[in-house]
Amino acid sequence: MLVDSHCHLDDYEDLPEVLSRARAAGVETLLAVGIGDGPATMHRALEIANSQHENAPQIFASAGIHPQEAHQATPENLAKLRALAKNERCIAIGEIGLDYYHLDNPEVAVQHQAFIAQLQIAAEVRKPILIHLRTSELAIPAAKARFAGHDATEDFFRIIQQHWTPTKLPGILHCFSGTPQDAERGLALGFYLSFAGNLTYPKSTAIREAAQQASAGRILVETDAPFLAPIPLRGQRNEPGLMTHTAAALAALRNMTPAALAAQTTQNFQTLFPTTRPLAQ
Question: Is residue 279 predicted with pLDDT exceeding 70?
Fold first, then answer.
């Protein structure tokens, strides 16, 4: 079976059909990411996870304030996050992190403050974190100018080493899009690498190199659905049932069969999140 370690289920109006197709494709577990359209709706993923769904995979949730909404990390919204995080179906905090890509993103200092505040909540509830990390490398010139002098990757590792590493808790580098060197640094700090549809894109040579080199016990697969549909469906709406394409690509890179890759990534996910193991195990 496969595990989709990162998908946005609250974006679908046809969710029952999406879940049914995922199950039919062999995707047996989903982690629904709870960022909503901002903190006001970050509870929606947990509501989905706590609901009954026929002919569907088992669903767990996260909760967090995305770095693009960092200016909304108010005391009230952080209190809401803390309450959601205590629910047993909420297994992670995220996606949280840094994003220096969009021109209208919050100021760097605001993003750092929101990130650190959520790391503190994750440490309180003893749950892993889901990391969103996007640099300004491929941003438009105006955004590059706005974030000039700031390196999202270096800022991320500095914050993690100061505020997260001492907790000895793990996390996921969601939709890993860095270099093999970034992957090594993340792995050394206890992170798992989750690979999405962009692994299959022609220009993603660095991502594929990282995917080849990463420790077998630290790799995961995700869709980031409804975004980042893999080749040969790039540009279409993505959904969990389509992650078989990304899983097959990752398996080929690592000289594994798709079945072996599915078994390995499922084991990795259940090691990271023990409560997601079926009761029979």
Answer: no
pLDDT in tens, 57-116: 999 999 999 999 999 999 999 999 999 999 999 999 999 999 999 999 999 999 999 999
Domain with 9 in it:
2-276
Q: What CATH number is associated with residue 159?
A: 3.20.20.140
> Mapping DSSP to helix (H, G, I), strand (E, B) and coil, where does residue 216 land?
helix
Q: Exposure string (b/e) for 52-80, b if CB count within 10 Å is 16 or more?
A: ebeebbebbbbbbbbbbbbbbbeeebbeb
Q: Please answer whether residues 247 and 219 qualify as being in contact, where contact means their C-beta atoms are separated by less than 8 angstroms.
A: no
Within a domain: 127: yes
In a domain? residue 182: yes
CA angle, residues 46, 51, 52, in degrees to nearest 5 = 150
Q: Is the pTM of this model over 0.85?
A: yes
CB atoms within 10 A of CB 120: 15
Encoded tokens for 126: 């003893």
Question: CA 30 to CA 127: how far, in whole Å?
Answer: 17
Fill in the DSSP letter of residue 154: H
Backbone angles phi, psi at 191, to 5 degrees: -90, 155
